[in-house]
Each structure stands twice: as structure tokens, then as C-alpha cells.
Design a protein that fits this description.
By secondary structure, the protein is mostly beta strands. The protein has strands at residues 7-23, 28-43, 46-60, 66-67. It has one domain (7-72). A four-stranded antiparallel sheet has the order 1-2-3-4, with no helix packed on it. Strand 3 (46-60) and strand 4 form a beta hairpin.
Length: 78
Amino acid sequence: MIFFIIFGTKGVTSRIQEGQFHCPNCNSSQPYRHNKVRRFFTLYFIPLIPLGTIGEHVECETCKTIYNPNVLTRGASF
């Protein structure tokens, strides 16, 4: 009898914050999502154990462009 154990890691994205910001690509005020990505140990493709934070990013909901979270502190001075 043969058993396969499938394990690995996976990035899981969770939303931290939502709001309005000045999108440099759209050049106007747009809704955004501030996301955090964490790496998880998976067993049979199920995330079980958090291994750490991979990073954070801000995504414009209109054009889907991803930015560094510092874009939220810059204001509308583009």
C-alpha cells in the first residue's frame, strides 16, 4: 500500500484596510485595498501553520495596479 503526503507552502492574502487614495496610474482618487501576504505551511493544500509575513501592498480597485504601502502617506501631490 502506497501513501502520498503532499506538503508545501502557500501565500495567503488578507485585507487590512480599505478606503480612497490618489492612484498614480489613474491620476485620480480611487478605492484601494491594503493587503498583507503571509506564508503558510500546507498539508494536502490546506494552509495550517503561519510561517511569517511575506509583505504588504496597496491595490487600486479600478486599474488593479499594485503599489508600496507608502503611496497612502504621499497625499494628492502627484
